[in-house]
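Listing S7. Sequence submitted for prediction.
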Amino acid sequence: MKTNLLLAAALAAATPLTALDLASKYQAEPHLSPLPRTDAERARIAGATAPATDFSKPEAFENLPAGAATVRVRADDEAFSQHSANLSFEQELEFKLGNGLFKKIWVFSPASTKASDGLGPLYNARSCQRCHLKDGRGHVPDQPDYASTTMFLRVSTPGPVPPELQEITDYIGTAPDPNYGTQLQDFSAPGITPEYKLQIEYEEFEIALNGGETATLRRPSYTAAELGYGPLADNAMLSPRVAPPMIGLGLLEAIPAADILAHADEEDADGDGISGRANLVWSPEFDQIMLGRFGLKAGTPTVHQQSAGAFSGDIGISTPLFPGHAGECTGLQTACQAAPHGGGDSRETEIDQPNMDLVTFYSRNLGVPARRDIGDRQVLRGKQVFYDTGCAACHVPKYVTHRLEDRPEHSFQLIWPYSDLLLHDMGEGLADHRPEARATGREWRTTPLWGIGLTKQVSPRATFLHDGRARTLLEAVLWHGGEAEAAKTRVVDLAPDDRAALISFLESL
């Protein structure tokens, strides 16, 4: 466990605040109303979340990765679409209403279905479910046209640091592309030109593994082709993104910020080669700096902001948090700005706050399936390999959530997400060279691993990593570099049986 650097004295010192001091300063959680932990609770939590040392048998409650919210394992593609097991009857109804909005197919304005119009004018998908297939991962689009609703390119240019963020000395300023904004959309309303067409090429290469085995990886290159509004800026930075799974988000949101920051070690004080940095981002919801938890670079602090941002950027639907009816249309896209929209005198935004609350509740409460085969000898051996190779240094297995009176379904649960939710340099091979807040172009948030073994059951075409380049879990591991280079090398050097055991463990999550 990393040294807890949340020292109150650091905040009162006259010397300039370090990056970790700033992270400590901005650990406020206005989206939660937690009760303080007692000394007895802290002692219990320390014992429950201590790293495993005995790999001869499962740990207590290891079969329940989401605590009391864990759902049964289904054998079909609905495995990620169940509500948390500890919802009340009234909450189940709220969940089902949110599910309806998550699946809603939006239509162009003007339309007779006033409750569903406002799509676009530029968009990547017509519903949330079209990106997060069956609430799971998206996939790389098919050749040759690469039309996709589950993958897109983010875009930005270097820009100034906003005044409210200048205290964060290593914050990396960015700005939207003047012609295309911050996200490229490949679909559009009638009479509106789409922004681009995504093209992908792969170069395959082999990696030799110990024991005479080999693995074939594919290195992608991305092109924003058929640009509809002129060239991208000369200094435009592109980043491919595949939609991630939706399970367990409310529980991740309920992890105490202090417990996440306890794993940060920006200067690698313990010399293990793993640093882990907190992303610090602006919350328009609460008008303050907060710890980033969501998104592939931890660029968003809450489930509600993540959901509202997706409505605006992915579907072109205005929300109270992001009220622009034209979505991601830039000021230079005049036809897009002038297109009809679904807002009006009696409907200020295309989706209102009560319905956004339902979507947020749904997104917070998609259940994490129970573990499988936790007592299997091969899985237990793979778990030990996971620890021995150093994977658990970033993929931190377990936490206990805040005690929350107003969110009992997320309150005081022992959960096993296998992530520290921090930023790590993953090496040049995975670099997108596009920063986001404090995250550099080589850094990514540690991906939670819970449910990963059911990924292809939910969506057979799903692949792994931020851009779907990895077709198997082993390929995903072999793309690790930077801070994870040593762990990746240990996996390469494993005996074939131990490497197979590691994959069996991951498939059991």
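Caption to Listing S7: primary sequence and predicted structure tokens for the chain studied. The CA atoms of residues 477 and 498 lie 14 Å apart. The chain has 15 helices and 15 strands.
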